[in-house]
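Thread: quick sanity check before group meeting

JM: Hey all, I'm pulling together slides for Thursday and realized we never actually wrote out the predicted structure for the chain we discussed last week. Dropping the sequence here so it's in one place. If anyone has concerns about the input, flag it before I start.
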Amino acid sequence: MAGVGSSNYWEDLRKHARQLENELDLKLVSFSKLCTSYTTSRDGRRGDSSDTTPLLNNSSQDRMFDTMSVEIEQLLAKLTGVNDKMAEYTSTPGASSLNAALMHTLQRHRDILQDYTHEFHKTKGNFLAIREREDLLGSVRKDIETYKSGSGVNNRRTELFLKEHEHLRNSDRLMDDTISIAMATKENMTSQRGFLKSIQGKVNTLANRFPAINNLIQRVNLRKRRDSLILGGVIGVCTVLLLLYAFH
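JM (edit): ok, ran it. Output follows.
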């Protein structure tokens, strides 16, 4: 680069400033895309959509963010140094005749530097805020999933216990019903036996007096024994079926 007193010094500074500004413009565009892709990556993972998930994972994006931040900060520092040199040049005695034009050019480069600095800090701040918020939400979602997973196991175990308890209650109820039926049948048969005995005594008296009635009584007794056998068999089968169902 030419010396301060050289006529080309100012132009060299302007060319260097424009070069740094172009590099910063490209870096800031890539930096903004990186921050956007980081948000898309989080959203893609939240929705489990492979179409929206970028190829880079978050750890790679974090490293790229740090690297690009350092590069942009270095470029901003270099552009600041060039602007300072341009400001020094405008103060030299040889540049006093062109001071207004030089100051206008210098102000334009300072405005560009200020805009790039503001854009960089805004994008960086947004990125850090998004990463902090998503890390917090990710931790909360992990805790919720862990709680749901544990609760699911406990709920399943509780459901099985309740079903088993209900099954035992049904079995107890069926056993009580079976015993009640058996007791009622026994009482009914005892009552019928006593009633039949009282009738049998009277019928025997008549049978002794009338042979035809004796023959009829014998037939009735035969029918009664057959009905008793059938009733006993039916009650036994019902009892077995109820017991099998209760312990199934």
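AS: nice. The first helix runs from residue 9 to 47. The chain is about 90% helix and 0% strand.
JM: adding both to the slides.
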